[in-house]
Amino acid sequence: MTRQNDKSNESQYREGSRPELRPPATAIIRRALAEGDVLGIRIIGPPGAGKTELIEATLRDLPAPRRVAVIVINPASARDAERLQKYCGHVAHIDAAVPTASAVAKVIGELDFSRFDTLLIEAAGGLAPLQDLGQDATVAVFAVSGGDDKAAEYHGLLNAASAVVITKSDLRPYVHFNPEVLVDDVRSINPAAEIFELSAQTSRGIDGWTAWLSRLRLSKQRKPDPTKDQSPDSFVG
Ligand SMILES: Nc1nc2c(ncn2[C@@H]2O[C@H](COP(=O)(O)OP(=O)(O)OP(=O)(O)O)[C@@H](O)[C@H]2O)c(=O)[nH]1
Ligand SMILES: [Mg+2]
Fold first, then answer.
1. What's the pLDDT tens digit per position in 216-230?
2. ∠ at Cα 208 (196, 50), nearest 5°?
3. pTM for this entry
4. 47 CA to middle of ligand 1, Å?
5. Residue 190 in contact with residue 162, Cβ under 8 Å?
6. Dihedrals φ, ψ of 218, to 5°?
7. Most buried of 3, 128, 188, 206, CB within 10 angstroms?
8. Is the pLDDT of residue 22 over 90?
């Protein structure tokens, strides 16, 4: 399939009413992740929520060996990529407002999957319908400073999420944020989602998050043939 075909298919899917949009490029990504035995995690949340800093902290604090690659998607992604280069040599970036599977598939085709076991894909958004990027799991990121109403606002993202990270917990003394409100909303939308509250800046609370990532990594290794499983985020929880 040519890139042009991927694009026209994607616009059709974007206009559709399906909750999770799955263009053909998704299958390419899923197959590459399966063949490379790489865990693909989509990290998504409102602009400025703290996604890049969460990835920085993850790369710092994840137990060795850290064999992680990152793809950053936003309209000025080069800056985020530069920040992450300090911790990880495998950082690609895509300048786009909307993460599309064809753009991710193209980047993945240029990565040497033999050098890592985990791929983190950072994308801003979550209000508009999500396009399936072939990921194994989706993580929704909200900041304490973004308010405790975010889970209710990002209903669609919550539905797709295997985990929710509430970051910038070090700002709790300075902002109005009632964790019970956000947690109750998460529980009512997606009771199976794991919830982590942490500060990427101080690393407080990061251990639970990195342990979850490591467990996911192991559970993918045990799975016999992920390409046969077509439902997104299906082996989690
Ligand atoms: N106090 C505090 N600030 C944080 C934390 N995490 C991120 N920040 C700050 O929040 C701002 C946004 O963080 P980023 O990591 O760039 O957020 P992002 O979600 O990647 O932003 P976009 O890619 O533009 O959508 C920066 O000024 C960070 O330093 C945290 O845990 N605590
Ligand atoms: Mg960022």
1. 999 887 665 555 544
2. 50
3. 0.87
4. 9
5. no
6. -65, -40
7. 206
8. no
